[in-house]
């Protein structure tokens, strides 16, 4: 991979922050990248990088852990309509509220990363304090990484060995504390010019001096128009297990989706998936007609656990499904 051009949007160590940035291809309407900052409301101060790659477009939120806010392919919207009017600046998200579920105050992305110290339902853990003694601490819903801003953001215009041009957004997000884990997320989100795919390559680094566990879950979220009554989740499932008694109620139709049902109580399913010899696997959300779909590809040696979240409530309540590969399952 050869870097043809590099542009720094944020570099905290060097005191760099670019308020507005635009770049586009020499050929009109082939591709463009725009960086801007939201002003006003809950989005005030949120940086956004918008990538337009022909028929495919998507936007990245450096202020929110390098998540992908929303996208579009041709005329098909990629994302969902959350009751939250975002993107929401992390300063308005209070993780400990409502029993540790305050994370939901900022949840409206197409892709949100969960982790790195923990993810899943609110719970407790036992850790060592500054004196080396054990103490009980609260773990909030889905961890901290989605509400931490990137300290480094770069745009890379690259060229691969086949002379294909690649647009890459590179970011670094630190999740660290004194007397605790010191973890770093190094993220590359890219797309091949003229292609219809988004590639994500993340590296998690332990910046501390001792061994440290970590976990990550990629929470892809899709609503209308791909999600609709009659839509299905296609998977190479070996085994599917309901999370709880509520999910067990729908186990016979776990892969099928209904039209919006006001007041629907969520259902979650844990999967064991098949793969090829290299560990590669994929899942697809397919619309009712079967002429549109969203495919998520990943490797089971890196992300062995797959979770499906069904929340087919009223549109105004957040009609959405979660397609979630991870290092582990989001158990309480």
Written account of the structure:
This protein folds into two domains: 2-220, Beta-galactosidase, Chain A, domain 5, CATH 2.70.98; 226-326, no CATH class. It contains three helices and 23 strands. It has helices spanning 97-100, 245-248, 315-318; strands at residues 2-11, 16-17, 21-24, 31-37, 47-53, 56-61, 67-73, 76-78, 111-116, 123-128, 134-139, 152-159, 165-176, 182-192, 199-206, 215-222, 232-234, 237-242, 267-273, 280-286, 293-299, 305-311, 320-326. Strand 20 (280-286) and strand 21 form a beta hairpin. The longest helix has 4 residues, at 97-100. The model has no long low-confidence stretch (mean pLDDT 97).
Fill in the CATH topology of the largest domain: Beta-galactosidase, Chain A, domain 5
- Assign the structural class, choosing from mainly alpha, mainly beta, alpha/beta, alpha+beta, or little secondary structure: mainly beta
Helical content stands at under 10%
Q: Topology as H/E string? A: EEEEEEEEHEEEEEEEEEEHEEEEHE
**Shape by Cα distribution:** globular
Average pLDDT number:
97
CATH class of the largest domain, please?
A: Mainly Beta
Strand content bin: over 45%
Task: Please summarize the sheet with the most strands.
Answer: 6 strands, antiparallel
Number of strands: 23
Q: How far apart lie the N and C ends? A: 41 Å
Given as residue ranges, the uncertain stretches (5+ residues, pLDDT < 50) are: none
- Counting structural domains, the number is 2
CATH architecture label name of the largest domain:
Distorted Sandwich
Q: Widest sheet: strand order?
A: 2-1-12-13-14-15
Q: Supply Rg.
A: 20 Å
The helix tally amounts to: 3
């Amino acid at each position: 991979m050869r870097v043809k051009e590099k542009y720094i949007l944020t570099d905290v160590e060097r005191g760099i922050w670019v308020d507005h940035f635009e770049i586009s291809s020499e050929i009109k309407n082939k591709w463009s990248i725009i960086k801007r900052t939201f002003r006003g409301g809950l989005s005030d101060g949120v940086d956004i990088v918008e990538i337009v790659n022909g028929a495919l477009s998507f936007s990245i939120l450096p202020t929110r852990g390098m998540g992908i806010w929303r996208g579009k392919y041709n005329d098909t919207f990629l994302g969902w309509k959350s009751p939250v009017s975002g993107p929401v600046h992390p300063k308005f998200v209070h993780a400990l509220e409502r029993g540790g579920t305050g994370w939901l105050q900022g949840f409206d992305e197409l892709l949100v990363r969960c982790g790195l110290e923990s993810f899943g339902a609110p719970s407790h853990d036992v850790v060592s304090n500054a004196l080396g003694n054990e103490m009980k601490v609260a773990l909030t819903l889905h961890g901290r990484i989605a509400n931490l801003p990137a300290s480094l953001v770069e745009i890379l215009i690259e060229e691969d060995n086949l002379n294909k041009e690649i647009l890459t957004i590179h970011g670094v997000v630190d999740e660290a504390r004194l007397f605790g884990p010191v973890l770093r997320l190094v993220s590359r989100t890219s797309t091949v010019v003229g292609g219809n795919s988004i590639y994500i390559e993340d590296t998690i680094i332990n910046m501390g001096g001792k061994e440290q566990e970590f976990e990550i879950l990629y929470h892809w979220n899709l609503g209308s128009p791909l999600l609709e009554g009659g839509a299905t989740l296609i998977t190479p499932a070996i085994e599917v297990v309901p999370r709880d008694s509520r999910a067990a109620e729908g186990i016979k139709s776990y892969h099928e989706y209904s039209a919006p049902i006001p007041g629907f109580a969520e259902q979650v399913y844990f999967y064991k998936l098949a793969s090829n010899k290299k560990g590669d696997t994929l899942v697809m959300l397919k619309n009712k007609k079967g002429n549109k779909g969203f495919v998520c590809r990943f490797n089971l040696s890196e992300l062995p656990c797959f979770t499906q979240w069904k929340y087919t409530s009223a549109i105004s309540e957040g009609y959405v499904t979660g397609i979630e590969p991870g290092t582990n399952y989001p158990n309480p």
